[in-house]
Amino acid sequence: MKIPMNLRGPNGQTRLEIDDEGTLQDLITAIQERTELRSFTLKYGYPLKNLDTSASALSSMLKDYKLRGETLVVAPLDTSPMIVPAVDPEKKPFTPKGIEPDETSLEWRDRGGYIVLRVMPDDNSCMFTAFGGAMGLENPVEKLRQQVGTYILEHPEEYSKAILGDDPERYVNRMLQMDTWGGAIELSILSDIYDIEISSIDVKSNRVDKFGEGKANRVIILYSGIHYDRIAFAMDLSYPVEVDVTKWQTDDDEVLTKAQQLAQRLQNLHYFTDTTDFVIKCAICNWIGQGTRDAARHERETKHSQFGEMQITD
Fold first, then answer.
1. Helix count (H) and strand count (E) of the chain?
2. Residues taking part in catalysis
3. What contacts 270, CB < 8 A, 6 or more positions away?
4. C-alpha torsion angle, residues 108, 112, 114, 115 (rounded to 10)
5. Which pLDDT score, from 0 to 100, does residue 298 have?
6. pTM across the whole model
7. 10 — pLDDT class (breaks 50, 70, 90)
8. Is 285:307 a contact under the CB 8 Å cutoff?
């Protein structure tokens, strides 16, 4: 007989079956092969508790642990030195309306964890970072921009000047610049490239826009007017983002409903920018305008694409 278990790790959730006459070492080996991780800790149960994987326990019979039907959480142990990217002192984390960190998660008791908002850097590449991280890509921004550009040029009938609002070559050249925002066109293309539905929840309206609807799996991102963040599931809020679950089957409507509940909480906290009337400033020439239409017009006229919301105080 086999002992069925769910395995939840950095690349999402999968099913695992181990012979009931196997040992804990057999389980460790199977997880290493499935996840390509060499060292990790294992947690299970609710509330979560550690599974003893010390050397003295590896010969224990797996059936003695009563793990049938359990979900094992795999948390990588990274002993390599951490590389800290250079930080631009002029840039601050994206924290619109002063939202507090404890408001960015929602407990999900039925699944023994939390739906969490993972806030992306405010660097004009937030959409690419949000999607790339959900797909488990490392340093995804440049790669995704290049993939989008190639796709546009390879599909001239689908992505013509009429659709893009500009000559395709100029549009692609601009999209390859790291300070150019990505949006609906790029999400639609990335959905095709990676064969995955991208569900984008609008904070202001709580509307869900689905790119690539009908595909087998989905990722969820959150749009707050001029910024994208990532939605994830965490078994414990103390866990690193590397063990987040960020992919779900599209017939899992519960996760989308839960994500909308979190978006509703964020809406109540005014975690969005009203793009119809917000005051915007060009970071290059200090031009000031109102709303996305003015911003788009200024970008067409000047090729400037670095904007920020101006906070108006009494």
1. 8, 15
2. 123, 126, 227, 304
3. 96, 97
4. -60
5. 79
6. 0.64
7. low
8. no
Q: Considering the chain, what percentage of its residues have pLDDT values greater than 90?
A: 39
Amino acid at 198: I
Q: What does the pLDDT read at residue 179?
A: 80
Residue 93: which of 55, 67, 119 has the closest Cα? Answer: 119
d(CA 194, CA 212): 10
C-alpha–C-alpha distance, residues 299 and 293, integer Å: 10
Tell which residue, 220, 233, 222, has the closest CA to residue 269.
222
Sign of CA dihedral 122, 123, 124, 125: negative
Q: Answer whether 26's CB lies under 8 Å from 62's CB.
A: yes
* CA end-to-end span of the chain: 71
Q: State how far the Cα of 138 lies from the Cα of 133, in Å rounded to an integer.
A: 7
d(CA 258, CA 261): 5
- Per residue in 131-140, pLDDT (tens digit) is 999 999 989 9
Q: Which amino acid is located at 293 in the chain?
A: R
